[in-house]
Specification:
This protein has 15 helices and 23 strands. It is α/β, with parallel strands linked by helices. The strands form 4 sheets. Strands 1, 2, 3, 4, 5, 6 and 7 form a 7-stranded mixed beta sheet that branches. Helix 2 packs across helix 3 (about 75-90), helix 9 packs across helix 12 and helix 14 (about 405-420) packs across helix 15 (about 460-475). It is globular. Pfam families: PGM_PMM_I (PF02878), PGM_PMM_II (PF02879), PGM_PMM_III (PF02880), PGM_PMM_IV (PF00408).
């Protein structure tokens, strides 16, 4: 006798299933993300981190308090407040940190040893908001390590089948952590003795406009601020420096005023992009290598992580300076897990996320920027010459292609690689390394029908040929 079909999963088509991603929560305010949704998520989060809902990961103790912060988006105070109501309904106390960058929330989680929730949609447009969560010590939470259970319990609450609230609710206390955050960073990188530098900083109307003055004021720096007013409608440009269009104003100002360099932060200020005195971008791979060398001076022989899309110059330079280069998948949860496993002191990604062991293994654009300022200010050459030491190859940047049959495209690329006598690995998508050392990585998007291509070769001409050859295979 055949078995009956399994019952459909409760809330299988609930909107929360669309906006709870692999590592965070992000959706349209009002339709996908509402105060009621955040209240239910807060209840589920409070129950999870306090050990009421499911077993916590190994080594994580149940928490009695949670720290919550938010960015400058118009919806953030209401949504974070509703989330706090949910957390206290679980019988868990809340430390309300108010305005913060994402790395300030990670600092709070690490320094206070509390789970945390940061309300931000990072570089997404003003109509979006979201939540980045972590366990005590800034340990990331992914779908595999708790986010799926939080989502499912929140859906149960929203559909009337959720758990009961605690008999004794938690309390809320407020705490301003900006000064503590600034002091902590300034102890990690001492800028007091560098030569005077003139820099332009584009905050993109995001949280860097709040954190930069606290961290960098009083140092031998002349700062020319661009778009420091906190404005979640992003009236000047999107707070996404990964898009070259959003660097144009910074580049023009650097050239206009003759600055030594420019820095651009994304909306929640956890990523930082750098341009030199000519306004030319310095690749995140070069910044990764520069910071890695500085970290190896403090910890000779240490491990340095780099994701598989950073330039091959990164592992070369790490090895030349006595470090152990460790290649990882793309994504902060993978890098943070590898940092814990390997004892790495630093890790960098092609997307300008930089992770530091002495910053709770969390990513911070501000600390990376301070390392760049320290390196530049400790010698007399311009940044273009300094950065040239770490730029060895030509890179394509990420190129997206819409595809209908990902598996078929990847199979065509495997066949092409075999014809070229190339090495292929599948750590994250397909990485094809050709006999001359050039390489191409093709990764499927987790959320869209896209393939993402990154390529690198010895010079611009070789890069163009490789890029066009692989794009023709993808798009035919």
């Amino acid at each position: 006798m055949s078995r009956p079909d399994p019952a459909p999963q409760a809330g299988a088509d609930h909107p929360l299933r669309e906006i709870v991603k692999a590592y965070d929560i992000r959706g349209l305010v009002g339709s996908q993300l509402t105060a009621d949704t955040c209240r239910a998520l807060g209840l589920a989060f409070g129950r999870f981190v306090s050990g009421q809902a499911a077993p916590l990961p190994d080594g994580i103790a149940p928490a009695t308090s949670v720290v919550i912060a938010h960015d400058m988006r118009e919806s953030s105070p209401e949504l974070s407040g509703a989330f706090a109501e949910g957390v206290t309904a679980a019988g868990v106390d809340v430390v309300a940190a108010g305005l913060a960058s994402t790395d300030m929330l990670y600092f709070a989680s690490g320094e206070l040893n509390l789970p945390g929730a940061m309300f931000t949609a990072s570089h997404n447009p003003a109509s979006y908001n979201g939540i980045k969560t972590c366990l005590a010590g800034a340990v990331p939470i992914s779908l595999d390590t708790g986010l799926a259970g939080i989502r499912d319990e929140a859906i149960a609450t929203l559909t009337g089948t959720g758990p009961a609230v605690a008999e004794v609710p938690g309390s809320v206390s407020e705490r301003d952590l900006r000064g503590d955050y600034a002091t902590f960073l300034r102890k990690l990188v001492d800028l007091s003795g560098i030569r005077p530098l003139h820099l332009v900083i584009d905050a993109g109307n995001g949280m860097a406009g709040y954190t930069v003055p606290a961290v960098l004021d009083g140092l031998p720096l002349r700062i020319d601020p661009l778009y420091f007013d906190l404005d979640g409608s992003f009236p000047n440009h999107e707070a996404n420096p990964l898009d070259p269009a959003n660097l144009v104003d910074l580049q023009a100002r650097v050239r206009e005023v003759g600055a030594d360099l420019g820095l651009a932060f994304d909306g929640d200020a956890d990523r930082c992009f750098v341009v030199d005195e000519n306004g030319d971008p310095v690749s995140p791979s070069a910044i990764t290598a520069l910071v890695a060398v500085r970290e190896l001076e403090k910890a000779p022989g240490a491990s340095i992580l780099h994701n598989l899309i950073t330039s091959r110059a990164v592992p070369e330079i790490v090895t030349e300076h006595g470090g152990a280069a460790v290649r990882t998948r793309v994504g902060h949860s993978y890098i943070k897990a590898e940092m814990a496993r390997t004892g790495a002191v630093f890790g960098g990604e092609h997307s300008a996320h930089y992770y530091f062991a002495d910053f709770f293994r969390a990513d911070t654009g501000m600390l990376a920027a301070m390392h760049v300022l320290a390196a530049l200010g400790s010698q007399d050459r311009p940044l273009s010459e300094l950065a040239a030491e770490y730029e060895r190859y030509s890179a394509s940047g990420e190129i997206n292609s819409t595809v209908t049959d990902t598996a078929a495209v990847l199979e065509r690329i495997r066949a092409w690689a075999a014809e070229r006598g190339a090495d292929v690995d599948e750590l994250d998508g397909l990485t094809v390394t050709l006999p001359d050392g050039s390489w191409v990585n093709v990764r499927p998007s987790n959320t869209e029908p896209l393939l993402r291509l990154n390529a690198e070769a010895a010079d611009p001409e070789a890069l163009a040929a490789l890029r066009d050859e692989v794009l023709a295979i993808i798009r035919r």
